[in-house]
Write a structure and sequence with these properties.
295 residues, alpha/beta, Metallo-beta-lactamase, Chain A, seven-stranded mixed β-sheet, six-stranded mixed β-sheet, 8 helices, 15 strands, 31% helix
Length: 295
Amino acid sequence: MNLLPLAFESLGTRSMATFVETKDCRILIDPGVALGPWRYSLEPHKIELERKSQHWRKIKSYSEKSDILIITHYHRDHYNPREPGIYRNKTVFIKHPEKNINYSQKQRSAHFLRQIKDLTYEIFISDGQTFEFGNTTIIFSEPVYHGPDSRTGYVTEVAIKEGKDVFLHTSDVEGPSLETQTSFIIEQDPDIIFCDGPMTYMLENHYSQENLRDSIQNIIKIMHETRVKKFILDHHLLRDLDWREKVKDLFPMAEEKGLQIISAAEFRNLENDLLEARRKKLWETTSISKIREKP
């Protein structure tokens, strides 16, 4: 099984777009990319806008190579309603558009399905289902909360199995801070996990210290109770420049277990490029450059 993270926060945009290739099929999970509209009371810098365009071109390129596209939920960093053409002649697995869904995502899903229904090869509702393609099995969790409660809706976690290889994509669990989110991961016993991580950049706002403690304990539990060797933490967590400090309790345990906790960029042997987290610095640098350029 070959894995390629296409767009993640550690690569400079909001996304969890991931390409998975097995001997039987090519799968693209969550083909979307976005930017935080405001951070530090600042809009996206031009470098972020350019990176978003680069990542979307890459996602489109890999969508053309893919047989299967998966949508774990209807937030726009996980799907793109503006370019339905990427779903043409594809098998598409979607989060249920009407059940276990909040109002805004229900509206989005209805619009999205109207756009793609005449383009796709087939559309399947994925919630809690298992699908087989030769020796490749795709397993979807029952809907779990997007975060510690249902305010921002529900998502489906995804496991892909090929022989002894098991890859797990958490989607937006914001941790995982809950037992329902964690139990699916443990049941699948993955050796590689792409996890969106705790939302530490919003501590004491949307995300509590208790949520963070629960997430750290659940990640430790996953490390103990699965055969994971590479635990990729990214997405929400990598919107925080101090992400390593916020989850520092994980690293001694990882070392003891002989596993890696790394970002999606590090998984690709690249340096982290946390553009959103560095937005204030990007704008300060731009302002300094403009002052220096004045005659």
